[in-house]
Design goal:
The complex is a heterodimer of chains A (277) and B (252).
Chain A (H helix, E strand, L loop, with lengths): L1 H6 L4 H6 L1 H5 L2 H27 L5 H13 L3 H23 L10 H27 L2 H9 L4 H31 L11 H12 L2 H30 L13 H21 L9
Helix pairs in contact in A: 4-7, 4-9, 5-7, 6-7, 7-9, 8-9, 9-11, 10-11
Chain B lengths: L1 E10 L2 E11 L4 E5 L6 H8 L7 E6 L2 E4 L5 H10 E4 L11 H11 L5 H14 L15 H14 L4 E5 L7 H16 L4 E4 L3 H7 L2 E6 L2 E6 L1 H6 L4 H13 L7
Helix pairs in contact in B: 3-4, 3-5, 4-5, 5-6
Classes of the chains: A mainly alpha (277), B alpha/beta (252).
Chain lengths: 277, 252
């Protein structure tokens, strides 16, 4: 410690002092992560369902898409989005007479797109595994009461698959938070980019990266806690009191209903249906 | 009145159902028996299209449905007329007993939640599970789960209730309560098809017994006719084997 102070190699104070300056950009980092995750979940679910239901053609396209996304580095995908999306808009302007303002298209959106679709390929596999972990019998039971597949998916399959997928998806969300530091490639100033700017002012790069590490770590710890909490909430209770849900009133009505139902069925009953023995 | 015509189902080159024709009257309790692998469960699963047969037609109260058509609307409509009780209960794991029974009413029949709750509670009362309404399947014994499953199927007011070996996955001591429940609802006039290996039970509860073998109906008659006076050699052999096992008679 003394050594550091004498040589001025490492400025401890600066690590703490520039935290507020960096934290101003934490919302951008989190926005990037949350929005990308939303795209990643939606597209990932779609891909997973396509693969589970083995929908012809779409299934091959999904496999191809996942292969490409997983086979190329995220930073390359970000560059492709950053240069490719404006090109695509320009092409549309020329061919379809649309009037997109290319220069105004935000890099932020490019970054969210690229990271969201990147995330979707990985989520697709996690979600697929979780969906196939749901017992087929329950899906059959849902069909047997007359539910459509989307209804069964929403009401029965997803709630159960979610508990299985949560740890994996949480893991990839944590990865995504840190992955947002690549968004500088799309000219987005998020926390890490701001750190570089701060470092450029006084050449104290080491200190600024230490500050960044502290912030990312803290954020990750909070997210981990949050995930644990959600996991706990999703757990079914170990024990339940008898009569937990049926209040006296409900029970009385139930009895009345059952009696009424019985008499209703009795009228349908044919006399010769009485049981032998 | 339910009529099944020319129901054929193959798995690869193994013919499981070979042109089944069957008329079921309202209030009939049809027991389906026969050796393993003769398509008893497949017959039930083809009727509500959990399996798609190659050929076949079913008429429910005058409305005809093709069983081999792969028509989504028809499939849903047919399934809404039938209820199914599975060998392995297949309750929805993340729903309480009451929610299990409510699920079809709310999602499929679009019934208001409060009404569905009352109706579901009534069905649970009918199978004697009222005090377990708030419990999840994992808290319930196999027999209790199966009773909830029966309530779930009954709640949908099916014109035909299919029971696929409802007691085969149960511990022996739990079989009785489920059989009693089934006997109860049978006496209330529901039309049912029951696949079971509990011969004594089938004999008591069924109004009509069908013996399936090699994908065909070999015997069809009242329990007394089929059990005491089988015409076919195949059925005679089957019952002879059963008697050798000397199953203890179940008691209720």
């Amino acid at each position: 410690m003394q050594l550091f102070a004498e040589t001025n190699l490492f400025d401890f104070g600066l690590v703490g002092r520039q935290l507020p300056e960096l934290l101003k950009y934490l919302p951008i980092t989190l926005e990037l992560a949350v929005l990308s995750m939303m795209i990643g979940l939606a597209v990932g679910l779609l891909l997973a369902v396509i693969r589970i239901k083995r929908i012809p053609v779409l299934r091959q396209i999904a496999a191809f898409y996942i292969s490409i996304i997983r086979g190329t580095p995220a930073i390359v995908q970000l560059y492709i989005a950053y240069f490719g999306i404006p090109m695509l808009l320009k092409y549309m302007n020329l061919h379809f007479g649309t009037d997109f303002d290319i220069s105004a298209f935000p890099g932020f959106a490019c970054a969210v797109f690229a990271m969201g679709f990147n995330e979707s390929a990985y989520n697709a596999e996690t979600i697929r595994a979780a969906l196939s972990s749901v017992d087929r019998g329950q899906i059959e039971a849902a069909s047997a009461v007359g539910m459509t597949y989307p209804q069964a998916l929403r009401r029965i399959i997803l709630p159960e698959a979610m508990t299985v997928a949560l740890p994996g998806l949480g893991n990839s969300f944590i990865g995504l938070i840190k992955g947002t530091s690549l968004a500088f490639t799309c000219a987005v100033v998020e926390m890490t980019a701001q750190g570089k700017i701060l470092g450029g002012r006084n050449y104290r790069y080491f200190e600024v990266y230490v500050s960044l590490a502290i912030i990312y770590w803290a954020v990750t710890i909070i997210v981990e806690r949050l995930l644990k909490f959600v996991e706990k909430r999703l757990e079914l209770p170990e024990q339940i009191d008898k009569n937990a849900e049926a209040s006296e009133e409900v029970k009385d009505k139930a009895k009345a209903y059952a009696r009424e139902a019985e008499t209703r069925y009795d009228t349908n009953k044919k006399p010769e249906k009485a049981f032998s023995q | 009145m339910i009529q099944i015509r020319n129901l054929k189902k193959r798995f690869r080159n193994n013919t499981v159902l070979d042109g089944i024709d069957l008329d079921i009257n309202e209030g009939d309790v049809v027991g389906i028996i026969g050796p393993s692998g003769t398509g008893k469960s497949t017959l039930l699963r083809c009727i509500n299209l959990l399996e798609t047969p190659e050929e076949g037609e079913i008429t429910v109260d005058g409305t005809a449905y093709s069983l081999s058509a792969h028509d989504r609307r028809q499939t849903l409509e047919l399934r809404r007329q039938t209820g199914m009780v599975f060998q392995r209960f297949n309750l929805f794991e993340r729903k309480t007993a009451l929610e299990n029974v409510m699920e079809g009413l709310v999602t499929v029949q679009k019934m208001p939640k409060e009404e569905a709750r009352m109706l579901a509670a009534g069905e649970l009362e009918r199978v004697g599970m009222t005090e377990w309404s708030g419990h999840y399947p994992k808290h319930l014994s196999g027999g209790q789960q199966q009773r909830v499953a029966i309530a779930r199927a009954l709640a949908m007011k099916p014109k035909l209730l299919l029971l696929d070996e409802p007691t085969s996955a149960l511990d022996p001591e739990l079989v009785g309560e489920v059989l009693e429940t089934i006997k109860d609802i049978a006496s209330q006039g529901f039309t049912m098809m029951l696949v079971s290996h509990e011969m004594n039970f089938v004999r008591k509860v069924a109004t009509r017994v069908i013996f399936l073998d090699g994908g065909k109906i070999v015997e069809d008659g009242t329990p007394r006719e089929v059990f005491d006076n089988p015409r076919s050699q195949r059925a005679k052999d089957f019952f002879a084997k059963m008697h050798l096992l000397k199953q203890p008679e179940y008691t209720i």
